[in-house]
Design a protein that fits this description.
283 residues; globular; binds adenosine monophosphate; binds manganese (II) ion
């Protein structure tokens, strides 16, 4: 069977989504997804649940995660697909990557308190299904609840981003390590939503070149956070760097996400879909 509707990027309560892995599997199936992956940030604790739920629905599944990486002066996300979810090196690497989030979150809350928004650490923590994964998304939900902003998009415009109150720079995993953990666990590393980073052309070239040199093999071309023009741009980059192409909604929540599971255009033609190189890893 030729797969078209693959959705290989979304989040559950195990990181910063609002649905359980089981509810996401059900939603993916009912929206016509033909191949699914749950890619929680820096955590693979939901993988066995997601795979079991997918199996019960006869929904083909690839293991997944989205690793936070510091590259030059920015945070880049690397999606891993089709790895062994019990690989000790990957589990340990992700555990260490999560390590700094608690201290960072307390500093974010201190900055917010300084501009008159109290109780943000406790408020955000209440939304974090997994306290180790406390993220800006959980702060955004608290700021909406507290009436500071009308929705989470407004929160990210006014707070939590570079130059705004509540932004605390953080050192994540290195690109080399993130790619290595994924590849050595039998999976494929993929640059997530490249249009989001705001790199210069030279910086982006460096990212793609170093990513390839470390063993990375794919790039997201069609994702919920790319425009139609971005699809073309990164289809071109996939060809130039001889990378396979991925497709994923980056769905987090029915009330917050613009793109629901599987509700995206097909990949542009003449690209190699990542799943064609991962058929042996599909469960
Ligand atoms: P963190 O890993 O704590 O830095 O949080 C990153 C998460 O914040 C991302 O995975 C998104 O879910 C969310 N996020 C970042 N920027 C935005 C934005 N502009 N609008 C909505 N959500 C965002
Ligand atoms: Mn997220
Ligand atoms: Mn991301
Ligand atoms: Mn994501």
């Amino acid at each position: 069977m030729t797969i078209l509707n693959a959705d290989l990027h979304c989040h559950s309560v195990v990181s910063d989504g609002t649905l359980t892995p089981e509810d996401l599997a059900q939603r993916a199936k009912s929206l016509g997804v033909e191949l699914w992956s749950l890619t929680d940030h820096d955590e693979i604790g939901g993988q066995h649940r997601a795979a079991a739920a997918a199996r019960a629905l006869s929904l083909p599944y690839l293991t997944g995660t989205e690793i936070s990486v510091s590259f030059i002066h920015k945070t880049v996300h690397i999606v891993g697909l089709g790895f062994d979810a019990d690989n000790p090196q990957l589990i340990e690497g992700l555990h260490n990557t999560r390590g700094g989030r608690d201290v960072r979150a307390r500093e974010m809350a201190d900055q917010l308190a300084a501009v008159g928004i109290g109780g943000a650490f406790e408020g955000a923590l209440k939304y974090a299904g997994n306290p180790e994964l406390i993220s800006r998304t959980h702060f955004a939900r608290f700021l909406v609840e507290a009436g500071v902003c009308k929705d989470t998009s407004e929160v990210f415009r006014k707070y939590l981003t570079e130059g705004k109150p509540g932004f605390v720079p953080h050192r994540w995993a290195s690109l080399a390590n993130a790619v290595r953990w994924i590849v050595e666990a039998g999976g494929m590393a993929i640059i997530a939503h490249p249009a989001r980073y705001g790199f210069t052309a030279n910086e982006e070239y460096a990212l793609f070149t170093e990513f390839k040199a470390h063993g990375g093999q794919g790039v997201e071309v069609v994702t919920g956070s790319h425009s139609v023009a971005d699809y073309d741009t990164y289809a071109g980059m996939a060809r130039e760097f001889n990378l396979a192409a991925s497709r994923g909604s980056d769905f987090h929540s029915p009330t917050e996400s613009h793109t629901d599971l599987g509700q995206l255009p097909w990949l542009p033609g003449q690209l190699t879909p990542v799943w064609e190189l991962l058929t042996h890893r599909i469960q």
